[in-house]
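Can anyone check this?
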Amino acid sequence: MPFGATGAWASDATGVAVLEIGLVVLASLLCGLAGVGLRRGWRALVGAPTAPSPLYYHLVGWGVLPLGDPAEARDVFLAVRAAMARAHSYSLFGAGVMLVLGALAYLVVGVVIGHLVPPSALLGGSGGGQTVLFVLALVGFVGGRLVGLKRLRGRPGQALSYGDLWPRRLRDYRSPLFLALSCLVVALQIAVTLLGAPHRTGTPVLDRGLPLDLCAVAMILTVVAGEALLGHVVHEPRVLLVADPLTAQRADDLLRALTLTLIQGSVLTILGGVGQAQWALLNTPGSALPGALSATAFLTSYPLLMLGPLTFALRGRLGGTVTGWAWTGRGMHDGAAATGA
């Protein structure tokens, strides 16, 4: 048996660990394959060049396509689609790399402790292992997107730039309500950690108290890092996809807003995942922690697991003064005109 594991439990756990780590590696390979497909323009992933697509109508809604000239509109559409496919490919590559690193980390831990432990069995089966892999994949996805946009800015022809009439601000693209929600959730989770400190008895995991502390620290770092990345993306130079200044500005606003949506949705999803891991720790069999703390951890984390993916569905319209909300139906720059930005 691998790493000198002995006993029926160790044998079964090793088999489960190999299966779970194998699935992680398979997922990383699928991410890489999809990234290659986007880079090569596989129709199954990017669609036919002439057929109407959701992206086409999305660009119309953002005011990116010059509808008065069909030939120019098609050129703009193809340029934006190629840029988005390239950016998405880097996102998938990033997620795949981080999943491979996660699988390697589990193997290293198995070598150190003498036998493989399934990710699903970490922290007493509380879901901590899956949460770590999930967070790694999201971090890789976001990091890959940032690298992809950086590479787009480094293409030939990007030396030319157009000045903005006003400085870009984060509130142009995202409502402050998202930051307020994140801070509220983190504050409640910290309260759960502090109030639960006197009751950390009953199980070996909770006796140490470290996992709960790490959950709170991870949430704080997630919000701080997320806000830093959002500010970085807002103030990055424009990506010039076409020659027309107005069309280029709106195409850049679209790419920028979609990247901000990806980061914001990832922050909420990570907060929800870490909160659910904390809730699972609080409900470990034999724990003497009060039920109210468990309920608080659940009610401040599980909804975020729903809200994070819903944020992705907003497709860049996060209530900013420029972008507005997805359900308002107004044009992308109507808010800017109304506020005099």
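Reply from J.R.: I decoded it. The first strand starts at residue 318 and ends at 320.
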